[in-house]
Amino acid sequence: MRRILTLMAAIAVAVGPATKAAARSDVGSPKAAANQYELVVFEADGCIYCEVFRQQVVPLYTASSTSREVPLRFVNVSKSDETKMGISGAITIAPTVVLLRDGREVNRITGYTGPGNFMQMVAWMLGR
Question: Is the per-residue pLDDT at 88 higher than 70?
Answer without folding.
Answer: yes
